[in-house]
């Protein structure tokens, strides 16, 4: 597996990481703990060195699974987790990035993961009630204490990220980015990353599964699947957005690849400091995703994709209004 570097402090990771959330959280199909551990270890065997989790996934169970799976290879992998939500009685209950909570979450995550240092600690969502300088300062304290190695943020606005970076340098921003969610190209995030030397970790790089071609208007999200509340996953929206999947299928056929591999290869081709973290519960999909690192898109290929994609109007927002309000702050 090829390697890429996030940030200026040399955090080297596999060119494609593994988003672990969906193993037991968020989607209708969930794996048991031992099944999840097996799949994570298979990812290691396939060359993945970058694993993403969060306290809120479960809550807590995902960190426990990831920690147990990676303990035998701790010195070979990078583990990212996140803080920033209030968790009350086992349920997410608003935002909480008060410094005392950040430090308590770090201690709890270290214990669940069974590690001595968190490699990359993201603020999961910006808390409008806490100055971002205080958040960055709290993580700076954790870094000084040896509990955290690198600071990250998920879904901040560009100016907020710049303010945080001035207090404690940011190693990576984790924002949604894919062929159907391209806000980072217009909202200043890519420019900030380029200027400040920050890596970008696109989550949902396969459009929460839609860009793989495995979903359609006839296969709506099942009960217990968070996609059922997303505007892009209504039957009408999926029908209209099928045009983007059809484009990926055409390019994939030319390249002897799959739509998912083209979607990931397109992201990898954008910048050398972009590291997508697709998730899956299936070994064959994991192998398929990692194969994207070997797909070469030429300048002509990228221009063809760009021209064709520009003619496709994406139907539906990526989140309902209340969730959109927690992004870009």
Automatic annotation (TrEMBL):
The keyword Oxidoreductase applies. Keywords: Oxidoreductase. Its EC number is 1.1.1.-. It comes from the Bacteria. GO terms for molecular function: oxidoreductase activity. Residues 16-308 form the NADP-dependent oxidoreductase domain. InterPro entries: Aldo-Keto_reductase (IPR050791), NAD(P)_OxRdtase_dom_sf (IPR036812), NADP_OxRdtase_dom (IPR023210). GO terms for cellular component: cytoplasm. This is Aldo/keto reductase. It comes from Bordetella ansorpii.
